[in-house]
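Help: read this over?
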Amino acid sequence: MKKTVLVTGGSSGIGTSTVKLFVKKGFRVLFTYNSGKESARKIIDQLESDDVRMFHFTQGNLESQETLLTQLPDRIDVLINNAAVGSATVKRLSDNKYEQDRKMFEINCLGVLWLTEGIIPRMIENGGKIINISSVGGGIFHFPGFSLADGMSKAAVAFMTKQLAAEHAHTKIDIFAICPGATDTDMFQSSTLNKLTDDERKEFLEILPKKRLIHPDEIARICEFLSQEQSTVMHGAVIDSSMGLGVSPGMINK
């Protein structure tokens, strides 16, 4: 029997890489999009698989969540909470600083909490894996000058991971968080790289760990490992996936 994975925010970045990898690995893949309907449709067309479906979802909106839950199958084996906004992409939702802060919490942590609570009952009997995508900023370390609301919302996801792991220490559900560093996604391009000149960008990449960006496929492969049986020993882990930025944060301030 094929396992079913639900990936939020599957129409771009890490989400897209994860969707494509899980289809390749033989999963039945369900993924959500918000504003990226055209991108989501292109993914469906490219994969040419009967085992992938897309759903519109406004994370942090309870009405939208209820609609999504009624569309999903009764059994979900893996939930990957990937959808989020960053300090730049949140500006596409509002020009008001306070509204941006609210949206950051609404989408990045409250939406993750509510969806996770909605999916857990579908995992209790057969077990499952919950994989939360947090960030090195907030989930692992703090970076002066970065958005407070962004870091706080990602820290909340890391805390939620540990709390739920404690609560499910004796169930068949395993819970993890992945904390990527500088990853080549639209979110990171918008928040950091697009502000730099070509020379500044080259200099920035030079001071990053390994002198490069993380590729979304690399995070997707971590998700794929965590979806397997042998990951149970890592239940509750908040995984620093930043190539060393989390242990040497001063690099980007040089």
About this structure: The chain has a mean pLDDT of 94.
